[in-house]
Amino acid sequence: MKFQHLKERMEFGKKSVESQRRNDEQLECVNNGSMDIEGLPVLRTNSGGWKASLFMIGVAAVMPLVGGFIADVYCGRYWMIVIASIIYVSGLVLLTISVSLSALKPPDHCQTAICKKATSTQIGVFFFALYLISLGTSGHQPALQAFGADQFDEEDKDEMLKKNSFFNFWYLSICIGNLLAVTVIAYVQQNISWGFGFGIVTVAMGMASLFFLYGTPFYRYKLPGPSPITRIAQVVVAAIRKRNISMPLDMNLLYENEDGDSIIAGKRLLSHTENFQFLDKAAVLVQDPSGGLNNETQGGKQPNPWKICTVTQVEETKLIFRMVPIWFFCLIFGVAATQSQSFFIKQATTMDRSMGPHFQVPPSSLLALSTVAGVVFIIIYDRCIVPLARRITLNERGITILQRIGIGMFLAVMCMVAAALTEEKRVHVAKIHGLLDSPGTTIPLSVFWLTPQFVIMGIADVFLVVGLQEYFYDQVPDSMRSLGIGFFLSDIGVASFVGSLVITIIEKITKRRGHPGWFVNNLNRCKLNYFYWFLAILSAINLCCYICAARKYTYKKIKQTSAISGSSRHYLLKD
Fold it and tell me: What is the rounded distance in angstroms from the CA atom of residue 547 to the CA atom of residue 104?
């Protein structure tokens, strides 16, 4: 009897636990109509949010490397823009249809607790539309910006100054588009329909594509060049082959073919630089024992590029190598910047968003603060700060590209400090009013306390984001400029993945030994201020490392030649 009684108690306890678990899961379910791929209620803790969206953002931002490569090597920037625009608009049309026609989407409202499962056709059409948009973006973004900058002649002083302003006004146009997206389009989608909102975007993109085609007779075009991967590999292989050869005392004697390979596709010659000197051996022309040059040639006519490379080709390889630390140190800024689109918005949802007695500010619309700050400051920077700095520094840009990026990193540190202080204020007010365990109750603190961190991040973007765009366009080889913009976009994409990884690592570390961790479902009990302080310290350390790398950085040096001699210079060494 005792064993039977004990067994019944165990069964009762098991059922109670199971019932409590189901109740907890119901509380944790997303209540906005979202479901998993099987059409079942979806748990908030296991899905959605930045855990899911960072995969889309990351892939969409890394893919431009492929689009930039194809534009530079195969089809050229103009045709890449045309092809990518067609794919982009097709994806938007299909996406608009997929959220508008009842046959291509599940019911808008669930009749029971379990929503009707989306059919395979509905899922396939929806994701095919997203993939088309991602594919179109991967070619459109890097090629369009590089093609726009190509319209200015870098050899002409007046046009060079206009090109410097081009990147500022390019960013201005992006900011205006973002402002319309987080205000007008967001309002239409939430209050009218998703189909109408996507329809507006589709029509706007179609009209923009037609407007681009209308300007075809007025553009300046550059032909695609050889594969940069092949050219870099040739330099590395040639340098390894000649690793035991001594370098000449006069570096001007290194091999340079001034009327052939070095000026393909209108590419400019580059001057020799002192760093990565082991690669210079690729430009040393070795004499074979018989006294001829057969050891370095193909058929006695053209030099074998896997054995001998020009100075320009070597310097192009050095440019890529020098970009790696700059690219790496800018990742941390991307990690900090993603917080303005995630945790900043979550903070806003708990605060008083009233503007008058009848209007509540949508949390996502606070992103407009960063956008407006960027729009205003980019105009002030281009029209006031740059001319003043130009008189002081005598630099055509006012300040150097790397200095501009460094200022943006410093402002990112200040943004995280402001965010940490504001979060401490928010939690303090919640504690005073006994709301720490009432996450659904509005904290009596105006949401506009978040204004400083949004504004500082918007100004930081003016310095760092625009600086990175200009850097990756200007400092890559002339034949790789679409790919250079792809490097910039990949920095943003990889930073999204790194940000997700940082949050995951912190979450696992802080949950050890039974601690709740920094990130819990109740934002009032989160240690979000600790996270912001952590990012501020990490960004400050990263800024110091960046400064060290920037101080040693050597900018691209264009060889000034009054006329092309049509000759090949080389230095002969006996093996």
Answer: 53
